[in-house]
Design brief:
Blueprint: H1 6-18, H2 22-35, H3 40-52, H4 56-69, H5 74-86, H6 90-103, H7 108-120, H8 124-137, H9 142-154, H10 158-171, H11 176-188, H12 192-205, H13 210-222, H14 226-239, H15 244-256, H16 260-273, H17 278-290, H18 294-307, H19 312-345
Helix pairs in contact: 1-2, 2-3, 3-4, 4-5, 5-6, 5-7, 6-7, 7-8, 8-9, 9-10, 10-11, 11-12, 12-13, 13-14, 14-15, 15-16, 16-17, 17-18, 17-19, 18-19
Length: 346
């Protein structure tokens, strides 16, 4: 091939791109564009490379240039829309997906992605409409049902949610997220046993997801199966040592088991990651109260009330702790006075 030909550099750029040698790919696309700046596909492919490098500003610029040179390509609008969606610029994403749909109304992926963008704007009705259209065009795609189910969740229609998650599972039983999401809905509906079954299915498929262990731990806690709850929280913490909710909820289990020393360890661990959480201060207060350390209980209840000053439970706990602390102090003072009086008599 002739090195003075833009196609030469373009094709070689494609090879480097496929090899993930992005810097050299960009150099070749630069040369191709220099030789033929009227080619939309050159800008588009350089945009793909910038996207892979997470240089989103330059990727958008290249996709925009490609659109300007060839506004009849649905793919160019679609790819720019995906970038806008990733950047949470949902309004611009919807505009691009709508343009892509207008140019190619038979592509289910375009409706699916516009549905995601509408979800980002919390516009459930329009999101559902797009997922319905995506399912109509591609009824064998499990992801379409999964996301329509998620949208039904956001709109509070749990019956339809379970139906869609079940359909997604039937179409793709290897997707752990479908089981996990359905399990969360069963948990919300109070069907804890079914939730545990779905979490177990999810974990059979993907054993390295801390959120699956954490949520199954919550379900075991609800069932008062404290040993299994602790086991699941332990696994989640192994996978993510900064999983603050796991420490807090494991602390709750230890508290229920009256293992107050371990409960304190977990609640104090929460402080390292979330030093302002009122609920954690309340549980520290409760634990210290059980250990008859009324002074520390009082201190922690006060901290809880700084975050939620109108919380009646915290107010009542503080009152009880202060009364117990005052009574304990007065009792100690009385004992000390009696000892000193006896010494004087001697």
């Amino acid at each position: 091939m002739n090195p003075s030909n833009a196609v030469y550099f373009y094709n070689r750029g494609l090879v480097y791109y496929s090899l993930k040698d992005y810097d050299i790919a960009i150099k070749d696309f630069n040369e191709a564009i220099k030789l033929d700046p009227s080619s939309a596909v050159y800008f588009y492919n350089r945009g793909l490379v910038y996207d892979s490098l997470e240089d989103y500003d330059n990727a958008i610029k290249d996709f925009s240039k490609a659109i300007k040179l060839d506004p009849s390509s649905a793919v160019y609008f679609y790819k720019r829309g995906v970038l806008y969606d990733d950047l949470e610029d949902y309004d611009n994403a919807i505009k691009d997906f709508s343009k892509a749909i207008k140019l190619n109304p038979s592509n289910a992926v375009y409706f699916y992605n516009r549905g995601l963008a509408y979800n980002g704007l919390k516009d459930c009705d329009k999101a559902l409409s797009d997922f319905n259209e995506a399912i109509k065009l591609d009824p064998s795609n499990a992801t379409n049902f999964l996301w329509r189910g998620i949208t039904y969740t956001n709109s509070g229609d749990y019956k339809s949610t379970i139906k869609d998650f079940s359909k997604a599972i039937k179409l793709d039983p290897s997707n752990a997220d479908s089981f996990y999401m359905r399990g969360r809905i069963y948990y919300s509906l109070g069907n804890i046993e079914r939730a545990i079954q779905d979490y177990e299915k999810a974990l059979q498929i993907k054993l390295d997801d801390e959120t699956y262990f954490y949520n199954r731990g919550l379900a075991y806690y609800k069932m008062k199966d404290y040993d299994n709850a602790i086991s699941d929280y332990n696994e989640a913490i192994k996978l993510d040592p900064s999983y603050v909710d796991c420490f807090y909820n494991r602390g709750l289990v230890y508290y229920e088991l009256k293992n107050y020393d371990k409960a304190l360890c977990d609640f104090n661990e929460v402080l390292k990651w979330d030093p302002l959480y009122p609920g954690n201060f309340n549980m520290l207060g409760n634990t210290y109260y059980k250990l008859s350390n009324f002074r520390s209980a009082t201190t922690n209840y006060k901290k809880a009330l700084r975050g939620e000053p109108d919380n009646k439970e915290y107010q009542n706990n503080l009152k009880n702790a202060m009364e117990a602390w005052t009574g304990n102090t007065e009792s100690n003072c009385s004992e000390q006075t009696m000892k000193e009086t006896k010494k004087k008599k001697k």
